[in-house]
């Protein structure tokens, strides 16, 4: 497939989302926020009261996900769930259902479909390792857990949610643990990924670095 992909993977609150969306904007590329697909599935599962052990039921939701992306807005059917899917409860459920192989399988084809001309910036955990192993550029974004907790805190407050620093640190550590230790598509850098630690970097600086790597492979 000749359509270029830039894969940006990393842990939660590493700044991936912001960097991926700005890089996409600068290059005029499409954007895949793969975490949103897991969050949308999780939101539906929570609303329907499905339990984690109902893997088949949750995979069915993923397979028939009525997701629609419009600029920065994300819809389930005609409901704008952009804010709702960012709640911590939904993120935690997303990371649990993301460990289910049938759920990952169900979302696989949907993700490939985002690869359209002139190119795609794909943001997630396994973009460079599993979904787009042939990506032209792979970046693994990291930041210290403290820096990430600070960012998540600010994000939540800005969006009008309440937040507690100690709870956030604990949640982040638990989620890192789940994402890196799971058997299927764990959060690990691809062998050919560029590592970028953004603990002491602004989003703008990270964007310039990614664009420079893309321009000068
Ligand atoms: O990136 P975001 O925090 O929105 O992702 C929510 C959850 O979805 C993550 O904690 C992770 O467990 C899961 N995920 C994944 N693979 C991806 C993207 C997200 O397993 N490519």
Query: Distance N terminus to C terminus?
Result: 19 Å
Work out the helicity level: 40-55%
Structural class: alpha/beta
The top level CATH class name: Alpha Beta
Poorly predicted residue ranges: none
Relevant CATH superfamily:
P-loop containing nucleotide triphosphate hydrolases
Query: How do the strands line up in the largest sheet?
Result: 2-6-1-7-8
Q: Write the CATH fold name.
A: Rossmann fold
Bound molecules: cytidine-5'-monophosphate
Q: How would a crystallographer describe the biggest sheet?
A: 5 strands, parallel
Looking at the overall shape, the CATH architecture is: 3-Layer(aba) Sandwich
Order of helices and strands: EHEHHEEEHHEHEHHEH
**What would you call the shape?**
globular
Mean pLDDT: 95
Give me the Rg, rounded.
16 Å
Number of domains: 1
The number of distinct β-strands equals: 8
Percent of sequence in beta strands: 15-25%
Number of helices: 9
Organism: Massilia agri
Keywords: ATP-binding, Cytoplasm, Kinase, Nucleotide-binding, Transferase
InterPro entries: Cytidylate_kin, Cytidylate_kinase_dom, P-loop_NTPase
Main location: cytoplasm
Helix and strand arrangement:
Elements: E1 5-9, H1 16-27, E2 30-33, H2 34-47, H3 55-63, E3 67-70, E4 73-76, E5 79-80, H4 88-97, H5 101-112, E6 120-124, H6 127-131, E7 137-142, H7 145-158, H8 165-181, E8 194-197, H9 203-215
Parallel strand pairs: 1-6, 1-7, 2-6, 7-8
Antiparallel strand pairs: 3-4, 4-5
Helix pairs in contact: 1-9, 2-3, 2-4, 3-5, 7-8
The structure holds cytidine-5'-monophosphate.
Cytidine-5'-monophosphate binds at residues 12, 34-35, 38-39, 91, 94-95, 98, 124-126, 175, 179.
């Amino acid at each position: 497939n000749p359509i270029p992909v830039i894969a940006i993977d990393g842990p939660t609150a590493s700044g991936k989302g912001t960097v991926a969306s700005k890089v996409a904007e600068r290059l005029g590329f499409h954007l895949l926020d793969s975490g949103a697909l897991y969050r949308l599935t999780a939101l539906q599962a929570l609303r329907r009261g499905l339990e984690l052990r109902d893997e088949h039921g949750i995979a069915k939701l993923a397979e028939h996900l009525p997701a629609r992306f419009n600029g920065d807005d994300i819809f389930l059917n005609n409901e704008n769930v952009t804010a709702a899917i960012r709640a911590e409860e939904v993120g935690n459920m997303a990371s649990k259902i993301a460990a289910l192989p049938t759920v990952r399988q169900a979302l696989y084809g949907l993700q490939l479909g985002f690869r359209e001309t002139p190119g795609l910036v794909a943001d997630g955990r396994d973009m460079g390792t599993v979904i787009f192993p042939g990506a032209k550029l792979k970046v693994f974004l990291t930041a210290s857990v403290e820096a990430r907790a600070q960012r998540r805190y600010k994000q939540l407050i800005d969006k009008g949610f309440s937040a507690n620093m100690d709870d956030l640190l604990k949640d982040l550590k638990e989620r890192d643990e789940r994402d890196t230790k799971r058997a299927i598509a764990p959060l690990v850098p691809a062998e050919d990924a560029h590592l970028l630690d953004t603990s002491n970097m602004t989003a703008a600086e990270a964007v310039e670095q990614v664009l420079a790597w893309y321009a000068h492979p």
